[in-house]
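Sequence and structure are kept together here, with a separate record for every protein. An example record follows, reproduced without changes.
>
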Amino acid sequence: MQNSKRAIEESFPIVEINRLAIPERNAFKPIYQMHKWFARRASCVFRAILLGAMKPAGTDIMDEFYKDHTHDLDTNGVRILDPFMGGGTTVVEALRLGCHVTGIDLNPVAWFIVKTEVEPVNIEDLKAAQKEGGSIYAMLFGVFLCYALCLPAEG
């Protein structure tokens, strides 16, 4: 990232982002029901902040908001550190933008939730488990139980 002025330094679409944040804050997110997060943050706010911090001045953040950033030179490979990741809002949104992310938290529940949330799922393993007669839910519960007990999952 260059040392030139960033989009967030010029303007921030607070009204538009607030409109997106209201319904998101009231949405049911099962992954966060495991532990009460008192400072739960809206993903759309963090996405806009990250875009504003990485995009050059003059960029319309709302024009960038829903774009595919797979090959975006402004976001891909940018290193992001979240030293108090909590529920992982910054981690998840930065990964969606193609950044290299490091998240740290002293709370092992926070670490477990974020790790599980961003870990790739092998779709073929899920399909195979379903064909073998077990439900996907039962297989996922087994994986969850293995992680919760800190035991290696059988493969």
User: Anything to note?
Assistant: The chain is about 50% helix and 5% strand. Residues 150-155 have pLDDT under 50 and may be disordered. Residues 7-119 form one domain.
